Amino acid sequence: MADKEIWFVTGSQNLYGPETLKQVVENSQEIVRGFNFSNDIPVNIVYKPTVKTPTEITDICLEASSSQKCIGIVTWMHTFSPAKMWIKGLSVLNKPLCHLHTQFNAEVPWETIDMDFMNLNQSAHGDREFGHMMTRMRKDRKIIVGHWQTKRVQQKLGNWVRVTMGWDEFQNLKVARLGDNMREVSVTDGDKIEAQLRFGFSVNGYDSSDVVEHIKNLKQEDVDVLVKEYETAYEVDEKLKNGGEKRESLVDAAKIELGLRAFLDEGGFKAFTDTFENLGELRQLPGIATQRLMADGYGFGAEGDWKTSALLRALKVMATGLKGGTSFMEDYTYHFTPEKAYVLGSHMLEICPSIADKKPSCEVHPLGIGGKEDPVRLVFNSPAGPAINVSLVDLGNRFRLIVNEVEAVAPMGELPKLPVARVLWDPQPDLEMAATTWILAGGAHHTVYTQALTTEFMEDFAEMAGIELVVIDKNTTIRSFKNQLNANEAYYHLFKNNL
What we know:
The protein is of the alpha/beta class. It has helices at about 15-35, 55-65, 85-90, 115-120, 125-135, 150-170, 190-200, 210-215, 220-235, 245-265, 290-295, 305-320, 430-440, 455-465, 480-495; strands spanning about 5-10, 45-50, 70-75, 95-100, 140-145, 175-180, 200-205, 235, 270-275, 300, 325-335, 340-345, 360-365, 375-380, 385-395, 400-410, 420-425, 445-450, 470. It starts with a strand and ends in a 5-residue tail after the last helix.
């Protein structure tokens, strides 16, 4: 994040004279300083000179669009800025845009207000002029309304900035698929070329032998160091300790992690997939290796699920420094009772320990699928609290982002024989409604589960990407949800895809 910037661009015009424009500059600079002192805004906000003419506006938009550091711009009309001046600049701008509708002063100075004050502080109608042009141009943007010094405004701006980080990550992300998609599975596959056109990230295939080559070149001392790290960081099962009957499985797991890290780092990959059907010479399916890589911020999708892998990486970037974890997830099995129904989320191995409620247990168990040796994995529960499950699916003519708001709860038993990480949640508004609408929307069984981010982040993300968003929350009904899907189908077929 230290290398990225958000540009703050203030609009005005030459009509007001040098004294007023000087005050515009000073006020804008003070707002930027205030934002940079805020703990809620994770990226440096950079003041840019006030734009007053069509040429100045176009130049700053071109500069922002070509800058590697600039990941988005915040615009504010301190005075009235005739919006026809913005047409060419907005037409060439290709970075996310946040329209901040604020004013420098918080309150009207009742005893001293005069026309000089009114001429200077025209955001109330200057921003409406600017907003009209963006609406006329069908320009997607984030609108934040309120005084710039309030925590609410700074939090909303900070959330949007985090989403721009995730979007910027998509533009540069490389996803490595180790093996292909799980055979005959639909939802985890999709159009990789259309994804690169829409999102920017690239997806290419590699073989497990590419990882094996790195494993063959490992130094034994590096493997020993990592094994000791396992023994310090986790509650290691007796069978995996030195002298235990499965000790070699822990050593193999460490080799897989080091080899996989080396492969990813060499190729500049920040996300990857694997599948138990294409393990080659790997002696076990990567379990603890994948879990630890996710904890370090890598994206992952099981069974070749490259969309979820890329999405996880983007959400990891957005959530940097926030409380709560973010993980690859799967709706695995249900808990039906007469009073309430719940979802037990898990996977064969690969749940990120960033969502663990305490020190994970490092264990080895048979997988029962894939025909390889017993894999090592981290086992834990996840803490209670609000979360969201997010799925990115390819519908053929467009991508859809599906969000279900959930409430994680403590498991109702010890689960002594379940050898995988897990989380139990209550989907909103209830399981019957949530599952029905999720299936209607074509949602995947793989998701990204996060307690760090909220639906608002996903709304901003879908808008930046220009893709469809559907949300399943406490207010969802099947009838209204069906109507929304039908309306969206017509909208994206007739209008959005033809822009």
